[in-house]
Amino acid sequence: MYLVVLYLLLFMKPNMLLDDGSTGWHLVSGNYILQHHNIPHADIMSYTFSSKPWTAYEWLSDVSMAILVKLGGLNLLYVVTASAIAFLILFLYVRCRQNRCNFLFATFITIIGALLSAIHWLARPHLFTFFGVFIFATQLDKFYRGSLSKNKLVLYLTIYMLIWANSHPGFLLGLAIITIYLLASIVEFIFLKPDNSPENKISKKEQISTLLYVLILNIFTSFCTPYGFQLYSYIIDYLVKGNAIISATDEYLSPIFHGALQPAILEIFFALTILGLIITRSKITLPELLIYLMFAYLSLSAQRNMALYVFANLPIIARIYASTKLDSPAGEIYLKLKQGWQFLIDKFKNLNEGFTENEQHCSYHILPILTSMILVFIALNGGKVFGYPLLKADFDPKNHPSATLNIIKELHLDPKHGFSMDNWGGIIRFKIGYPVFIDDRADFYGQDFYIEYGKLIQTSPGWQNILKKHQIEWILLPKNNRLIEELKMDSHWQVRAEDRGSVLIMQKNANVDKEPVSK
Question: What are phi and psi of 389, to 5 degrees?
Fold first, then answer.
């Protein structure tokens, strides 16, 4: 499982994790912190809002990413990110097996689950939320079932919460998962059947007190950031004031169920859950039910949350299918199958038992660890093996500017008269150091400025006035963009450079220090 994911990311889709320009501004933020030994409190990306207060709420992940790039370039960042995702998918499969799911079904749901979560596989801080959701849901389930001690639960969740709260605002999901287990335990304590033993009542009381303690401790830990209470205020403003911008961002839109791969897989999981609940002999717990419903709702509310559905709910689906009516000697379906297919059934059981025994010998995951270490060494060596370039991670030149960035720098174009696509802002700032008109931090620029940006890039009525207002002299946008096509017909503008993914167009009277080198 690990090797399949790693092969996909490193060799079949070698630019997949860098398909989002947001990675650029995270690296800029991380480099700033490393250089100044201080977390920025005002914008460091744009020239339009250079003095505006900014909360770098993902500072720890930004620093981590910047350190990796300093040590081994984008190759090392790519390898570490790909390895982290591959390990997470492996851990997901292992958890499904721990929930007594048959290895064939566990393999099937893990593979299609990986395809579903791949919609948001990117070298960005939200990977900390992927791990956080999985860790919190898994460890709380173990504690709830009595297979994890109180001390270990407190240790695991508190340490990760400290990392999570400084890396991504999705840490709120961790608090929500703890709250669900706490409320479920309270409900079960209140409505325990009269014939339950006093020992069970005492055990449930201890469970409730532990979960309450863990929740309070994790809430306190979430304030252990450079921003303290300000972080919560910032998140609330982002969710409330930035709602109009969020609703227009692709990854925050609801999935469209018209044949696209990931929404189709989500439908398969919904169908499997319904079928599983019909034929299962396993009992789903109240917190599992609430966790499933919460992440199912989140997956329907935004495409990016479909990945979280996988890491929270696949182990639950696996448990549902751990024991079904098909396995019941008294079940009619089983009896019918037994009459005609006893040989195949016995073979299947023997195969599952043999595979389970072999898996136990691989519990330390030596091969994945060695593979990651070798890949890290290759990345530190410039991505080369005996002089052969095996790794060459970069932003995909099909979808992002590449050669045009060199032209901008060679011409010494004035950064404060430039305009580019919002998602390219981070790449421009990272690659050539230019402050930008805008980048894709939708929470930072505000609705009014984004409306202005949208009018310009879509050439809506009044777009010429926006060009004049901001004194734009050069523009970098994707090919066939409306604004580019309009300016091509304007005698005051000329195309200065092109590459596979972008066009640089300039005013003819723009200040140019020297001619560009030939492409």
Answer: -75, 100
The C-alpha atoms of residue 433 and residue 356 are separated, in whole angstroms, by 53
- Cα-Cα-Cα-Cα torsion 448, 450, 451, 454, nearest 10 degrees, comes to 160
Tokens of 166: 């400084």
DSSP string, 258-280: TT-HHHHHHHHHHHHHHHHHHHB
Q: Give me the DSSP letters along 372-427.
A: HHHHHHHHHTTTEETTEE-------TTTS-SHHHHHHHHHT--GGGEEE-GGGHHH
- Cα separation, 314 vs 484, whole angstroms: 46
Beta-carbon count within 10 A of 151 CB: 9
- pTM higher than 0.85, yes or no? yes
Q: Choose among 219, 165, 208, 154: nearest CA to 185.
A: 208
Among 408, 410, 427, smallest CA distance to 418 is for 408
Q: Which residues partner with 495 through β-bridges? A: 505
Q: Are 397 and 499 in contact (CB under 8 A)?
A: yes
Please give the Cα distance from 371 to 33 (Å, whole number): 31
Using CA atoms, how far apart are residues 500 and 398, in angstroms rounded to an integer? 5
* Residue 472 CB partners (closer than 8 Å, separation 6+): 417, 418, 419, 437
Phi/psi at 438 (nearest 5 deg)? Answer: -160, 155
The angle subtended at Cα 318 by Cα 313 and Cα 320, nearest 5°, is 95
Give me the helices (H) in 302-331, please. Answer: 306-320
pLDDT tens-digit readout, 178-232: 999 999 999 998 887 654 556 566 688 999 999 999 999 999 999 999 988 888 8
149 phi-psi bin (left φ>0, alpha ψ -120 to 50, beta other): beta
> Any long-range contacts for 255-258 (C-beta under 8 Å, 24+ apart)?
255/299, 255/300, 255/303, 255/306
| Cα distances (Å, whole numbers) of residue 61 to 30, 68, 117 | 8, 11, 20
| Spatial distance between the Cα atoms of 364 and 345, rounded to a whole number of angstroms | 31
Cα–Cα distances in Å, from 138 out to 9, 91, 174, 323? 26, 10, 11, 20
**Per-residue pLDDT reduced to its tens digit, 122-139:** 999 999 999 999 999 999
Query: Amino acid identity of 369?
Result: I
State the CB neighbour count (10 A cutoff) for residue 514.
Answer: 8
Per-residue pLDDT tens digits for 409-463: 999 999 999 999 999 999 999 999 999 999 988 778 888 898 899 999 999 999 9
Question: Is the separation of the CB atoms in 172 and 231 below 8 Å?
Answer: no
Count Cβ neighbours within 10 Å for each residue of 319-336 and write b for 16 or more, e otherwise: bbbbbbeebeeebeebee
Residue 365 dihedral angles phi and psi, to the nearest 5°: 55, 50
Residue 319: which residues within 8 A CB-CB, separation 6 or more? 99, 100, 101, 282, 284, 288
